[in-house]
Amino acid sequence: MKLLVYVPILTPRIKYIFNFIFTEVLQTQIGFTSVLAEFQASDIPKISYANRPVGNEIFFKNADLLLEHKIARPTIKTTAFGDTIVPFAVADSTLPFDVFAAAFYFVTRYEEYLPHTPDPDGCFPVRLSLQNKLKLLEIPVVDAWALIIKNIIIKRYPNILFFKKTFHFQSLVCMYPDCGTTGSGFRNGAAAIIKKVTGLFRTSLTEEAQLAEIQAAIDKMEKPYAEKSRFFYKTTSSGAEECYGQISLPASYLKLLKYEVTKDYRMGYTKTPGFRAGTCTPFFWYDLQLEKTTHLLVHPVVINDLSLPEKNIHAKEVLHKWKDILDTVKLLEGHYYMVWHQNHFAPGEKGKTVRKLYHDMLANFLTPTYDFQPQ
């Protein structure tokens, strides 16, 4: 049974975020109408998103953001919602804030298009993130809000169908020979120059042997579990997927589209755990400059191993924090992506520590398959 949504004007922004929340997150069908008579006559489940309600339907009052066709710093009023503070406060609505405007603001990374001072790596600083300021960064709030919307609709229309989703866990291992060096402290600049001058760089064969050993070690640790890592080897400048490096919007994603890359696994903060786009559900990138949905599928990353300290990793504390976030994603039947870099598994004291952390992470997060027989 389809959900009918009344909007006086169906803008590209409204269409995008409603489709994401209802089709991708909540797994149901929706249709739109701007014809008042059609909406009033319909006997299927329906909601409205407007400035005022049509009748006694489930009504969500709109802020201005989704009606606009420009990129400008919005005036954002906040309000209390449960034990959180949320943006885009409105009055006389089913919810005390415009949940769709808030979701759009987070998912599209609207704030990253606004004037700001980049961090030393040229990227958007986590301290400027609205989620960070509202203490929402470690919660996939868009998915949590979607669940609230779902429960509101089911209460009025118990026969409406929402398909069940499945929790998805995956480690993403960047196997590029030079990966993980930005901001990681692994490669000393002076030492690199000396190596280059003296011709002591590892040969391609040695690099390949080390990468093969690292992948074999990870495969062995994952043998008891159904969930397996994805290994990314950079072969050309126009691969189908990307997991390496940081993103700066919109330039990074425009470059991927230019090279016909269809999937990205970098939507996260490299040194801070959390949900940069506010969601644990993959989404198609919305180009705010062109006001259109692209075919680039963005997979939100919650953990990046570059967030680990260079020394003195307190595994118990790290795993506890990661597990708390994982439990929330499980509850919301979302996707939990972690990015790892091959050089963090390389021989040496840090590599030994990271391998043990990875082993313990798997043991704490996953359940062994029943048919696994230890050797």
Description:
- Helix 1 packs across helix 3 and helix 9 (315-331) packs parallel to helix 10.
- This protein folds into 2 domains: 3-156, no CATH class; 168-365, no CATH class.
- The relative contact order is 0.13.
- Strands 7, 8, 9, 10, 11, 12 and 13 form a 7-stranded mixed β-sheet that branches.
- The chain is an alpha/beta fold and 375 residues long.
- The chain is globular and about 70 Å long.
- The termini are far apart.
- Strand 11 and strand 12 (292-304) form a beta hairpin.
- It contains 10 helices and 13 strands.
- It comes from Pedobacter duraquae.
- Residues 95-172 form the DUF7033 domain.
- InterPro entries: DUF7033.
- This is DUF7033 domain-containing protein.
Which secondary structure elements does this structure contain, and how are they paired or packed?
Blueprint: E1 3-6, H1 12-25, E2 30-33, H2 36-41, E3 46-50, E4 58-61, E5 78-81, E6 84-87, H3 99-107, H4 130-133, H5 141-156, E7 168-174, H6 189-198, H7 204-222, E8 230-232, E9 241-242, H8 251-258, E10 263-267, E11 283-287, E12 292-304, H9 315-331, E13 335-341, H10 349-365
Parallel strand pairs: 1-2, 1-3, 3-4, 7-8, 7-13, 9-10, 10-12, 12-13
Antiparallel strand pairs: 5-6, 11-12
